[in-house]
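User: structure tokens for this one?
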Amino acid sequence: MTVLSVNLNKIAVLRNSRGEQEPDIGDASDCVIAAGAGGITVHPRPDQRHVRPGDVRELSARIGRRVEFNIEGNAFAPARGDYPGLIALVREVLPEQVTLVPDGDSQITSDHGFDLASDAAALRPVIAELRALGARVSLFVDAGATDMSRAADLGADRVEIYTGPFAKAYAAGSAAEALARCVETAEAARAAGLGVNAGHDLSQANLGCLIDAIPFLAEVSIGHALIGEALYDGLAPTVRNYLRVLQPRTGN
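Assistant:
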């Protein structure tokens, strides 16, 4: 079954809006783990507008080895203030997975994958360093990208397909083309010996469609929609709803 990794960034956004400690991100992690989530994802940024370095350290200690800890981030963003840089954080907490994402301060959220041709020289030593620290390394890639042998050559273990365009197309009622691009990239990654993750704008509404098309997805990382849905239904019930969507389908 595909692992559900819950992204807790939005919990931190809500907490930061008051400058206090509630809602507590550690308590949120305990809640989603108890509900059955197989992983916790965070994306610390240099601007610290949601998850902060202290959160990463606290969550690592709180989670232990109960579930996978996945840290997303830009390894090329320099240290700033209390933010020590992605690799320095990874060295401190030793997560099971690191997802490399080419984001910057000007982006509200991640909105594109790596160009594996032009970014190869910079990515190769970073991937080697992260793997030497014991982390599985996943590269954020655009749906429709097919040169997944390049990602394997760089030393990556997995790719994460950016599913934002698919989610928008699904909401508009015309997902076939965008879904086909996701499948194309997933098949190319599997042929190259890579694991396949997916994330961004996935929700209870569109997740089943993606899973039916790519039943071999190793993991989905979901935060924004899940936390939004939890405002109405509660955090633990919402996690359990997602797990039901992820149950293997007959014939897949």
